[in-house]
Amino acid sequence: MSKDDSLFCGRTTDDAVRITALSGHTFTKLASLFDDDKITSYAVSTDNATIFVALKNLMLKKIEYPSMKTIKVWQSFHHRPIFRMAVSTGGTRLATSSNDSTVRLWHLGPKEGFSATCRAHNSMPTLLRFHPDRPYLFSSALGDYNVVVWNTETGAKLGSLDGHQSQVTGLCFNDDGNSIVTCGRDKVIMLWSCPEFQRRNIIPAFESLEACAFLPTGALINHLGESVLSEQLLLTGGQWGCLRVWHPTNGRCLLEVKGPLDRAPVTADGTVLTSKDRESIDYGLHSIVDLQLAHLFPTPDSSTSSVSPTDLLPKLILVRQSNHVEFYDPMRAKLTAEFLGDIGQVDQLCVVGKSHNRLLLADASPHLKLFVNPCGLSACSKEMDEGGKGSWSCHLVPGGHEDVITDLTVSTCGQWIASGSKDQSLCLWQVVDRDLTLPGKGPLAKVVLVKRLLNAHSAHISAVCFNKSTNLLISSADDNVLKAWTVKFDKPDLQSNANFHSVELAEWSVVHNAHQACVNAIDVSVNDQLVATASRDKTVKIWTVTKTGLDCLGVLQGHRRGVWSVCFSAREKTFEGHEQPVYKAVFLSNNRQILSCDQKGLVRLWDVSKPGMTETSDSSTGCKVFEAHEGRIWSIAVCPDESGFYTGGEDETLCYFKDVTQQIVEERSKKQEEFIQTRQVLDNLIQQKQFAEALRLSVKLDQPKRTLDLLQDLLLTDEDMSQKANNEMKSLRYSGHVAKLETALNGLLRPTAPNKDFHEDNNTSSEHLVQRLLTYAINWNTRVRTSVIAQAILNWIVTTWTPEQLLRWPGIARTVESLLPYTVRHYQRVSRLEEQLAILDYLCDVADEHQVGDITESSDPAQIPEVVDLNLSLETECELRKN
C-alpha cells in the first residue's frame, strides 16, 4: 500500500501486478503491469516512484511509476526463479531471494549494482525484512526454524534468532526499532531485543500465526481505555482468521476482532448463532496470510514536501487466503473498506434488494459476497456514483454456513434470500438498505441472517427455491429427499433497534426418493400450484401443491443427459445448438427469448417467438452466441429491467453483458435517414450534371458501384469540356474527357456547397475520401474493363500528392503491393497491343505498296480497284462508326 492510496496487488492466475486506487469505499484500476515472461515477484520502493519486478527468466526490471516505463533491466545471477523481494526503508538496498537458497543484495542509487550474496539457508527463503533504521536484513527459509540477521553493507552474518519450533512466518519492529517480534506456525510469539538479538519474552498464542504488526502508539483507546495511551500493542493474525491484540510485555490478549467464522449475526429473538469452536477451525479461505501497517497522505493531492511524517494517517491492510483485502482503522480497529482481490468459482448469482439493485454471489466458500452498487444495476440505485457507472466494490457476508454454499434463491420482492449448503443447513437472509435520510455513515446495504436451520437435510443440500408468494420454500438434497417448508414473516418490533423481520420456518412436506439421482434445480410456476424438479437421472418431474403436501403429477423424459436447469414456459419447443452440456437457462422478454450457458463458456440467446432463422453469429442454430468464459458457466443473473445480464463460472471471473439493441436500432435508423437524404442530394446533383459534387457524395456514401458508373460516364460522355480542360491536355487524344475526369476528382479536395448541411468529420474529410477512392481503385484495377478508371485515379493521386505525403497514409505499403502486380500485367498487355499494332501498320504499308505497283502495271483503267486509305485517324474512324 503506497502513501497516495494506491494498492499494489499481484495475482498468480494471470501473472500480472495490478495497481488500484482507493477513494473512500470505491476502488479504481489505475494500471496493470505484465510481461511476456512470467512475473514471479515484485517490490515497491518507499517513495512509490519505482517498482522492481523479477521475471521467470531470472531477469530483474526497474520500472518507473506512474509512467510504467522500464528504466533498467539486468541479470539477477540467481540459478532459480526469484520468489521474494524487499526494498529498504531509505530505498538504497534491494534484496532478492530464490529457490537456490541464496539471498542477494543490490545497491540502489547513483551507482546501482550487485552488493553481496548471503549464504546460510538450506532451502528457499520465504521471509525478507529490512530494519527501518539500522543496516540489518532479516531472512528466514522454508525449512529453517530461525531468523538470520545480515549486514546490508557487507553481506556478513550478524546473528540468528533461534527458538521457534516451526517455520517463522511473521516479523515486525516497533517504532523505535529496539524491539523485534517474530511469530510462526509453532503457535508462539517471541519478543527480541535489538541490536543484542536476545529473546525477552515468549507468548503462547494457541494458533498457527501467519503475520504480525505493531499498532501505532495510543491505538484502541476506545476499547481498552487510557491505560494503553502510551503503549504500543501487538497485532497478530493466522489460522483462525481473527485479529488479536497482545500486550508485548506481559503477554496478555487484550482484544479480539472477529473473523468471518466468528461474525455470527444476532437473530430477531436475540440469540447468537455460534460457529465452530476455535480449536476445530483449520486453515481455509478465512485465514489471514498478511498484515501491513501503512501510513497514507491525508488527501490524495498531498505531496511529500507539504506533509510531515506525523501527519500521515495509519491504515491497516489485512489479506486473507481468499485474496480478500480488508482495510481497518488501526486506532479504532474498525473495518473501513473491503477489496475483492479475487473470487472463487462462481456457483450462483442473484439480483437482490428492494429495488433489485444489488448483486449477490456465492462462490466455492461458506460466505456470500455482496456487490452493493454493481455496474449495470447502478441505474436502479439512488446511490449512483458520479459517473453513473457503478462499481465492483464487494462486501463479504460472514456467518451462516460452515461449508460451501450450493444454491441460492431470491423472493419476488428481492428482500429475502434462502441458501443451502453442504453442511446440510438452510439459512434465511434479509437485504437491509440503509436509510439515506438518517444521519450517520455505514454500508449502503447489508445482508442479515434472520434464520438458520441446522440439519435441515441428512445430506448435502443441492437446490432451493421460493414460490412466488414467498410463503413456501422447496429444498432437495443428495439423498433424493424433497422437502417443503412453510415460511411465516413477522413484522419488526418498532420499539427495538432491529430493522429486520423474524421468520418462522417449519417443515410441511417430505417426499422420499423423489428422483433416482440428485436434484439439480427446482422451479415453481407463476400460480404457485406446480413445482418442477430437474435431476441427474435425465428426468424432470412435475409436482402439484395440495393441502397435504407435494404430489407427483407426471414425469418428463426426453433428455439424454442429466438435467441441470428447469423453468416453466408457455411454449413447447426444443432448441438444439449447444455442443457441450447446458448448465443454466433463463427466460427473457416475457418468455419470448431464452438465455442459456454451457460447459464451453458460451452464452446463447434463443428467440422463441420466431420459428425461423434470426440475425445471428451462428447461422446453423439460429441463435446469437456470446463468448463469456474460459470454462463452465454455472449461473446467469438477469437485470430486472432486462438491460443486461451477469454470468459467473469456474474460471473465477464475473462478466456483465449490456443490452445495446435499442442503441443499435437508433444508430441504424439515424444512418438510414442520413443515407436517404444524402442519396436524394446525389440524384439531384447527377440530374443537374454537377459531377464533382456528385462524386464527392458517392464516395462519402461509400458506394463503389455508383462511383464507378459516374466516372465511366464522365470518361465516355460526348459533352465538350474543352473550356474546363487545361491547355496542355488539348493536344492529347480524349483530352476533354480526361480533363473532365480530373475536374471531378479535384472536387474531392474541397467541400462543396450542397454538402454544407452534412456534418464533416474525420471519416468524410477530403484526404479520407481520397483514401477510400484509392481502395475502390485497387478492386477496379483487377479487371481489364475498369482498369482505365483505376489507372486514371492512380495517376491523379501520384501527381497531386508528394511521395512524402503518400507515405503518411495508413496502409499505403499494402496498397502499393496490391496495385503493382495488376498494373504490371496491364502494362504488359498494352505493350503487346502496341507490338501488334506496329505489325498491323507494317502489313498495311506493304499491302499499299503492292497495290500501287499492280495499278501501275495494269493498262486497263477499268480494272483499277478502288483504293481505301487504312491510315485513318481515330477521330475519323469514330465518325464513320457513328454514320
Automatic annotation (TrEMBL):
One of its GO terms (biological process) is endonucleolytic cleavage in 5'-ETS of tricistronic rRNA transcript (SSU-rRNA, 5.8S rRNA, LSU-rRNA). WD repeats lie at residues 75-108, 161-193, 398-431, 454-488, 512-545, 575-616. This is U3 small nucleolar RNA-associated protein 13 C-terminal domain-containing protein. Gene3D superfamilies: YVTN repeat-like/Quinoprotein amine dehydrogenase (2.130.10.10). Residues 680-844 form the U3 small nucleolar RNA-associated protein 13 C-terminal domain. GO terms for molecular function: U3 snoRNA binding. Its main location: nucleus. Keywords: Nucleus, Repeat, WD repeat. GO terms for cellular component: 90S preribosome; small-subunit processome. It comes from Opisthorchis felineus. It is found in: Nucleus, Nucleolus. SMART domains: WD40. The keyword Nucleus applies.
